[in-house]
Amino acid sequence: MTTKLRAAIVGSTGYGGVELIRLLLAHPNVEITSVISSSSAGAPIADGYPHLNQILTDRLDAVDVELIRSKADVVFLATPHGVSTELSPKLLDAGLKVIDISGDFRLQSGDVYETWYKHKPADPEYLKRAVYGLCEVFGEEVRGKDFISNPGCYPTATLLGLAPLAATGWIDPKSIIADAKSGVSGAGRGLSLLVHYSEINENFLAYKVNKHQHTPEIEQALSRLAGEEVVMTFTTHLVPMTRGILSTIYVNLKSPRSEDDIRELYRQYYEGRKFVRIRDKGKYPATKEVWGSNYCDIGLSLDSRTGRLTIVSVIDNVVKGAAGQAVQNLNLMMGWDEATGLAFTPVYP
Amino acid sequence: MTTKLRAAIVGSTGYGGVELIRLLLAHPNVEITSVISSSSAGAPIADGYPHLNQILTDRLDAVDVELIRSKADVVFLATPHGVSTELSPKLLDAGLKVIDISGDFRLQSGDVYETWYKHKPADPEYLKRAVYGLCEVFGEEVRGKDFISNPGCYPTATLLGLAPLAATGWIDPKSIIADAKSGVSGAGRGLSLLVHYSEINENFLAYKVNKHQHTPEIEQALSRLAGEEVVMTFTTHLVPMTRGILSTIYVNLKSPRSEDDIRELYRQYYEGRKFVRIRDKGKYPATKEVWGSNYCDIGLSLDSRTGRLTIVSVIDNVVKGAAGQAVQNLNLMMGWDEATGLAFTPVYP
Amino acid sequence: MTTKLRAAIVGSTGYGGVELIRLLLAHPNVEITSVISSSSAGAPIADGYPHLNQILTDRLDAVDVELIRSKADVVFLATPHGVSTELSPKLLDAGLKVIDISGDFRLQSGDVYETWYKHKPADPEYLKRAVYGLCEVFGEEVRGKDFISNPGCYPTATLLGLAPLAATGWIDPKSIIADAKSGVSGAGRGLSLLVHYSEINENFLAYKVNKHQHTPEIEQALSRLAGEEVVMTFTTHLVPMTRGILSTIYVNLKSPRSEDDIRELYRQYYEGRKFVRIRDKGKYPATKEVWGSNYCDIGLSLDSRTGRLTIVSVIDNVVKGAAGQAVQNLNLMMGWDEATGLAFTPVYP
Amino acid sequence: MTTKLRAAIVGSTGYGGVELIRLLLAHPNVEITSVISSSSAGAPIADGYPHLNQILTDRLDAVDVELIRSKADVVFLATPHGVSTELSPKLLDAGLKVIDISGDFRLQSGDVYETWYKHKPADPEYLKRAVYGLCEVFGEEVRGKDFISNPGCYPTATLLGLAPLAATGWIDPKSIIADAKSGVSGAGRGLSLLVHYSEINENFLAYKVNKHQHTPEIEQALSRLAGEEVVMTFTTHLVPMTRGILSTIYVNLKSPRSEDDIRELYRQYYEGRKFVRIRDKGKYPATKEVWGSNYCDIGLSLDSRTGRLTIVSVIDNVVKGAAGQAVQNLNLMMGWDEATGLAFTPVYP
Fold this sequence. Notes:
4 copies of one chain form a homotetramer.
Chain A: E1 5-10, H1 15-25, E2 30-36, H2 45-48, H3 65-71, E3 74-77, H4 83-93, E4 97-100, H5 110-117, H6 124-129, E5 131-132, H7 135-138, E6 147-149, H8 153-166, E7 177-182, H9 197-200, E8 205-207, H10 215-226, E9 233-238, E10 245-252, H11 259-269, E11 276-278, E12 296-303, E13 308-315, H12 319-334
Helix pairs in contact in A: 1-12, 8-10
Family (chains A, B, C, D): Belongs to the NAGSA dehydrogenase family. Type 1 subfamily.
GO molecular function, one term (chains A, B, C, D): N-acetyl-gamma-glutamyl-phosphate reductase activity
EC number (chains A, B, C, D): 1.2.1.38
């Protein structure tokens, strides 16, 4: 193509934003024209991220809708909760395409959002307009749209692990338990004692037990797939590593199925989708096997003793769980191959 | 006391053995009189473990029942599966007290052992004689005995997290799921690609899904507590850290109970037991909070949305999950205070 | 003994303070009677450090000299720079023994302190009174004193590695280079981006190059030992681990010596000192081999090609580099065996 | 271009080999036509490296010169010492281009090789033919050649840190000390206790003190640059992280120079070279800032107190220190832009 799509990134100084920069710098159809930060406007982005020295020499722009309109065609929002609520409607009204990585437009119900996020929900009109961009499940709805709500990291790993079964009716929706573990980068660059090195190194812990705001997001998508309301148990843990999410999911089958049938169901469901890989019998993915990449790898084990199915699903939380899926959504929006600019190999070891 | 109990440690060059050395060196009533290794006999133990330089200058003894009898009153076995099967009967016949840290005498059924361990089971007569030393649950049976089978690391964390409820009949025994995570030292000092640094650093994975040999050990104890056969789902994961186990346990209640009632049940069950600490409402333990110590810390969360209880239980796998509980069992056998030589503070940070 | 010495700890909520708590709880002659914090007074210390639950149930006291005098015989100061400058004189005037873990009284010259610390120096009268408690080198001066300035973590590792040679005149004092590496706990519990987990995990870096405030402290002690002014090169690095310091030290010999002679010099210098261990030829210590303990282990290598000597010295920065040496100083002050309460084995693995 | 260059990789199952796969899969001008392993021939490479599932589905070929000739134009050797000694001459005689990542052809003197590597040296005729491919220093010699000896990881970091000064004669060649620290992946995938997770996690150590085989490689290049024989002190350490090398280098200046002059010298020396980045005054690079990339970042500090210069140089040992520089050498050999296929951003965090 002759002209590249011009992209702006709001929240460029967070981990999601800086990963978008890494990915978009390698995207053949996109040019980064504005990196934006409310806190550090005016400073070169490489001041806070020296790995970008001589790679991206831009200074950070302030958050200014007019300026964004003059510089960009599409805007990525990698911002804390509450920012997109206000900003996305303005960007859309200005005629921009918006891909929102925050949680502000993921829940269709404002009440549910308020209960779990403890923030005022977004305008219902724009909530309705947002397309939930879980690419391998709802990707068809993304094509040609201008406002995408990018799924959360935990929901991406957990939903890709459950979607084929949730859509069949083979499982008891009351039985779903997801025990999820995340690398520390999921907590972002904001300082807190929880992710102070000496506290979380050589440590493993559960947090927000039965209270994590990604719970209703997973339930909303599962309910839609199952055609009935799903309420589930969801637990989050911190792992002393930077990147990676592994979700171990437990479900009871409504009636007996073989593990081979279930694996075949998964393979058919994800046929033709480059970024989901189903492991063979007896093999389970490790987070490192998708590190730095946009893959989601899934393993399955049916226990004949209990009749319960265990699903192991892994992603890189910063790529497939955030910036990578956002670029994948951009590809789908624009009608490009979904792997454009994302077809790199995981970094190993 | 004037005379110290003389202790021998078989398997001194493994992580369990070397931790027994650390603990027994600090025990006021015990003297280490023989450190034993089948592979490195003759060499100073500090050759393989330089941290013991000038602390324990002994050379390793070979495995020789007569020699052990001449040097020791009690023998700890920190050996791979299959060694104790042969050795413990001989040591007992020689009049020695035996505390077996391996899995060889934990399962009462030889058939179940063979199914999960893929080894020939021990002599039934000695199997019957072995007391399962889960101190806070079955500790009364340990007093005055001469042959203790020390619980596994995962079972210790999981069973201490479940025992109070398993004994009440409040929970549905078919609903039990334990999602357990362990530091890498649990895999021992034997070399393997799985625990090669560059493979498991910055990595998280599930292993032996629905196949871990600790499953029947947990089920056996739960069945005994519940008075009915319990079959459960048990998953093990590796965490990129050296020490620590966290078991996240999910159970369905048979009938509604308040979280306060359940917490009170736990506090009463463990009353007077120094090494189990129940957290207050909304607080969950981290593995680092018991690091290097014999504590087991437990947090509880009842989810009103699903009626399901989540239990978080943590231990140091090398201490409470192995050497520490073995010393605690020694204390109980000998009629000493169970905390003798174990009353040290977790190392933090 | 019938009555225990009563100890207060100012700065109990920092890592140095909380390690003092761990060590003093195990000390046979000492009782902790006050844990003090300027920021969290009134709260139970276990609120911020749950590993202390049911072990130390005290609430934090405010910093109040009268209160300290009523509760304690000896005061440990584990405070940021500048606090001890003001507080220690008052505590001494109140008749208390003081062991200061901060840097405020380590440099005899107020000007040098001001240059490197960018703080106002302490009163010269009290500066003169402070004894620099590098136990194995200047320990004789500690006996019977009431005011000890506890050495810094880097200086302890580096000086114990250099002291025998510095005192001989065998080395060229202009040639000394110490390349030191520290675990992250040395940076304390205060939040900063430098020690944010996702920044320093899987990372290694140099910091404060040619600017670290421990430089003049090392030079002052070396100058005293050498009997001439020593100016040296000192570099500090952060290692992605919690505890441990390794200092690699390079010196040129004035005239040829054999490595065996040098090793023998070290062994004689440290004869009878439990906490310094000299490795045999070809062996070098790892930080993990002293982890959690008060040992300093030293290895030596003389390169015949260059005539340069390389010294490798390791400590646990929180123990021998802070709280452990402080307790050792207390033991020396009180005329107790220097290893009292400190004779525990490193935690391995 | 219409036809891609066909590449074979011998030693595909080591970390260097698998990183070559990652890089060459993204190279626009190259096609991987054979992945070769002496130990696992016949098996799919993804069996041992599941991150390659559905990305590289090839089976491993045996080492067979005829087969290689039929499938490839260029051969990368990522093999243990001693393999290339035998294999490279055969491959060259078969008309293939060879890039050798092992140490077999780096030292021009067979005697020096034998002294440090304890292996029989290669045929002098082929030794003479090998071009030492330190791209930013000797890259001009690589153009159009068919046999490149790729520099070692430590030498790359250290030499790029020293080359500008070594070529000027500003420094005393007797004063050079390089204190280098490496992530664990440098030790390869072969199992050993040294890099067993529980041993090296939360640990830092020096190894092969004054004995590392990269010493003469650095000296050879420095001697060539300086025009006189250089003998230096070189120490290697292991850091508990997977990737990254940091070399802290100390040199004495022959006569006074300002830090600004030295920095300017470095900037001019590396002008136009994309992969070397010189930091501004007071800034020092961290290994994470080049993680996963082909960059070498360098910081400088001249200490006015000692007149000594400290240089901090960082690389990713698997990329710039092995596979990345090998691809860069391929680019130079072929006359392509040296950054072809390598212009990706470091992965952060």
